[in-house]
Design brief:
Helix content: 55-70%
Shape: globular
Distance between the termini: 48 Å
Low-confidence stretches: 10-15, 163-167
Strand content: 5-15%
Number of strands: 2
Radius of gyration: 20 Å
Structural class: mainly alpha
Mean pLDDT: 86
Largest sheet: 2 strands, antiparallel
Length: 167
């Protein structure tokens, strides 16, 4: 197995300025995301879920019962996307939308069938994660996580922008 490069180290050891990135960062990230998504989706398909559905079941299990708006905010998605993504889970009987504490609110609950489906899917997610770690190398995966974790807050904007975008 070949040694993994230090991905966060400066390219020029003599302190020279780094070259300006070439190409479109958005396009490169989308290429990577498509490959990673294909990898996870192939594994998750074995249990009949998409990775987005697994993520949604996991969030509802952790946060639920939860208001749809709070769930959307926790997942960093807008309300209409959440509604669209919840529909197949409701139809399958894995989550339920029930009345909330007042007449205008609803709560998302995971059902027993949803807990079972999520447990089944978690085994496939773990297999996908371990295979990706093996393919890329643990050091690269850790560096990728660190870089993403550092970049997300920088791109988040102000809390007011976040709230307006998510509602």
């Amino acid at each position: 197995m070949q040694a993994e490069p230090d991905l966060l180290a400066p390219a020029a050891a003599d302190g020279a300025a780094l070259a300006r990135p070439q190409g479109c960062t958005n396009f490169k990230l989308r290429q990577l995301m498509r490959r990673v998504a294909q990898h996870y989706d192939a594994e998750m398909a074995q249990c009949g879920l998409k990775t987005t559905q697994y993520s949604l079941l996991s969030h509802v299990l952790t946060l639920g019962p939860v208001r749809p708006g709070e769930l959307a905010q926790a997942m960093r998605m807008d309300a209409s996307t959440l509604t669209r993504n919840l529909r197949p889970l409701v139809d399958a009987g894995w989550v339920q939308l029930q009345a909330g504490p007042d007449a205008r609110s609803r709560l998302v609950h995971i059902t027993d069938a949803g807990r079972d489906k999520r447990a089944q899917a978690q085994r496939h997610w773990k297999a996908a994660q371990l295979a990706l770690n093996e393919t890329l190398g643990v050091g690269r995966v850790q560096a990728l996580h660190l870089l993403v974790d550092e970049c997300l807050p920088l791109l988040a904007g102000t809390p007011e922008q976040e709230t307006a975008r998510e509602e």
